[in-house]
């Protein structure tokens, strides 16, 4: 990762945000990396080292071995409970407060299944890939109560005794209609899109900033490494979220 963040780049990005009425912040796993939540591309550690996320985050894995899949999500939910939002999450919340105070709006659209944006004070317009804290009955779809996420053993629905499944979107599953609609509306209304910490590999989520760029919406990206989305951006800040986002607020 390059050293000092180029102040001219920060000033250009800050000017785009300053001139904007409605900003969309689109985040991926890199947003939570400095909180200690491993990104999807990180090697799976410890007892999970023999799996890859694509192996476990699928309906087929759930049908094949519900206990193992449930335990993986319960472990991830427990790990998120042990960590805190980072300076990047707090800067996004502060940006939202500043926009609101001048009659503007901030929409957070996240691919992340953690609740760190909310715990930093942001309202999330859409969790495109669901949440670790919204388990639900696989049979009757009844929400099972957030804390069940960390229950180590496979729980069953109180109403119909169906298996409770993690409230996340697996590969091959449709994205939640409400979250997708809210995200499309937010991107359509955006004067600026700020992308933070995503490789841009997962669709259809990645199509949102790409289509915004095609409509001429200015795109700012924060990522220590270029991503597949970098070619569509107007301003690429090669830095971590916890460094670049607070810097944008200090200009
Ligand atoms: C679907 C929940 C359709 C589960 C996740 C074209 C069109 C439509 C679909 C597809 C398509 N091509 C392929 C598909 C299928 C598939 C897909 O996209 N596959 C990929 C792998 C090619 N998509 C789907 O299956 C989606 N569903 O399309 O349904 C359909 C149509 C008809 C009928 C039925 C269905 C569903 C996808 C959702 C999968 N679920 N998560 C769970 O968490 O277990 S996705 C999961 O991976 C995460 O949620 C996250 O979104 C994604 C990982 O991406 P990132 O967030 O970007 O994380 P990553 O690790 O990749 O990158 C981290 C970045 O952070 C890096 O760039 C790094 O440099 C940076 N970084 C690191 N540190 C920092 C940092 N940045 C800033 N600061 C730092 N400190
Ligand atoms: Zn049920």
Question: What is the CATH architecture assignment of the largest domain?
Answer: 3-Layer(aba) Sandwich
State the helical fraction. Answer: 25-40%
- What's the shape? globular
Summed up, the domain count is 2
Report the average pLDDT across residues: 94
- Find the structural class using helix and strand composition: alpha/beta
How far from one another are the termini?
Answer: 22 Å
The H-level CATH homologous superfamily of the largest domain, spelled out, is: TPP-binding domain
Main beta-sheet annotation: 6 strands, parallel
Series of secondary-structure elements, N-terminal to C-terminal: HEHHHHHEHEEEHEHEEH
Annotated CATH topology of the largest domain: Rossmann fold
The percentage of residues in β strands lies in 5-15%
Order of strands across the widest beta sheet? 3-2-1-6-7-8
What is the tally of beta strands? 8
Tally of alpha and pi helices: 10
Task: Provide the low-confidence segments as ranges.
Answer: none
Description:
It is a single chain. The chain is an alpha/beta fold and 251 residues long. 37% of the residues lie in helices and 13% in strands. The protein is globular. The model has no long low-confidence stretch (mean pLDDT 94). Ligand BV8 is lined by residues 28-30, 33-34, 39-41, 53, 57, 111, 113, 129, 168-174, 196-199, 201-204, 222-225, 227, 240-241.
What is the fold's blueprint, element by element?
Blueprint lengths: L6 H12 L3 E6 L2 H4 L19 H4 L2 H6 L1 H17 L4 H15 L3 E6 L5 H4 L4 E4 L8 E2 L26 E2 L11 H13 L2 E5 L10 H8 L4 E4 L12 E3 L3 H10 L1
Parallel strand pairs: 1-2, 1-6, 2-3, 6-7, 7-8
Antiparallel strand pairs: 4-5
Helix pairs in contact: 1-10, 6-10
The site of ligand BV8 has 35 residues, from α2.
């Amino acid at each position: 990762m390059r050293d000092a963040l180029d102040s001219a780049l920060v000033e250009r990005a800050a000017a785009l945000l300053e001139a904007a009425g409605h900003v969309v912040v689109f985040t991926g796993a890199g947003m939570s990396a400095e909180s200690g939540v491993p990104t999807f591309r990180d090697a799976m550690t410890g007892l999970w080292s023999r799996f890859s996320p694509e192996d476990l985050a699928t309906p087929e894995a759930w049908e094949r071995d519900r206990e193992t899949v449930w335990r993986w999500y319960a472990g991830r939910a427990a790990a998120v409970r042990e960590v805190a939002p980072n300076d990047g999450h707090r800067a996004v919340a502060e940006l939202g407060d500043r926009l609101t105070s001048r009659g503007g709006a901030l929409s957070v659209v996240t691919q992340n299944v953690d609740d760190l944006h909310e715990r930093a004070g942001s309202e999330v317009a859409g969790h495109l890939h669901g949440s670790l804290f919204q388990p639900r009955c696989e049979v009757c779809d009844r929400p099972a109560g957030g804390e069940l996420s960390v229950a180590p053993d496979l729980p069953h629905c109180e109403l119909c005794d169906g298996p409770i499944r993690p409230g996340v979107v697996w590969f091959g599953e449709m994205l939640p209609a409400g979250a997708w609609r809210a995200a499309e509306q937010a991107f359509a209304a955006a004067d600026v899109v700020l992308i933070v910490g995503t490789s841009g590999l997962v669709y259809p989520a990645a199509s949102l900033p790409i289509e915004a760029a095609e409509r001429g919406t200015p795109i700012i990206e924060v990522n220590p490494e270029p991503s597949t989305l970098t070619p569509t951006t107007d301003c690429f800040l090669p830095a971590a979220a916890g460094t670049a986002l607070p810097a944008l607020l200090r200009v």
